[in-house]
Fold this protein.
Amino acid sequence: MVEVLKSSFEDLFPIIETCIRECSFVAFDTEFTGLTADSSNTETLFDDGPARYAKKRRDVQQFIMVQIGLSAFIEIPHENRYRVHTFNFYVYPGSFGSVNVKFLCQASALEFLCRHNFDFNKFIYDGISYLNEEQEKVLCNEIEELSVATDAECDYDEITVQEISSKISEWLATAKNEDKLVLEKPPSVSDYVLHSQLRQRFPAIWTISVDRLHVQCAKITEEKKSIILKEHEMENERVLNSMLGFTRVFRLLVKHRKPIVGHNCFMDLMLMYDKFYRPLPGTIIKPLAAILFLMFVNLFSVVFL
């Protein structure tokens, strides 16, 4: 089994992609922060399809997945057996710009995770981010408009950013093109917010992170800035890919249309739809199973085998 964290995701992604592309089918399981958000959501024998869906939808909207296990079964020709590649993903809804997910935790669910040695530090500190299509559109627009910093971030960081801005103003008064200034990077300000704020305030400079503790400002010409901005578009793409995280794995499963095997996985599938694809619709226009079958072609639950 291969453990996949945010810090190792990009290195392992090509291997994961190859395994999904070459496999005959994929088995999966997930863990989440709760099962029932409210006693009114408890299912009864008298629930019809729409009623059960409405209850599960309310639960899914308030809980998140914390861990996803995928096993890709690759058939070995002429040997009547499979080679299995198993990946264990810690997933966590990273915050960026206005994308800042709120979720519930149910005590019994967390106790269950504790009993099975779930590592909450890995979940929070090194969990892989994800977005659904709606969140991705919002984030793309904010990145393009350089409006990723939320109001709360700006209020909190304004004093620190202003102190750095004052030092840059003094330096710019005598600086020449290609001159550089290295300043300490405040730990309370994210790299993206710091660079966005400084580049907006001082059009004649460009900033880069030298290391974890320092930021470099360089006075540049308009011509050089236009070249750098093209390169900066690639950086924006990297940021978006980082936030998409596990959604990229989900899209591989949909793209390659491999049979999916789970165990009693109705809620798991609803969570995957809501967190990685689109927010669950308020009412069932067509059976959810039909939508999922269109995405995955074949779904199997071992409960019915």
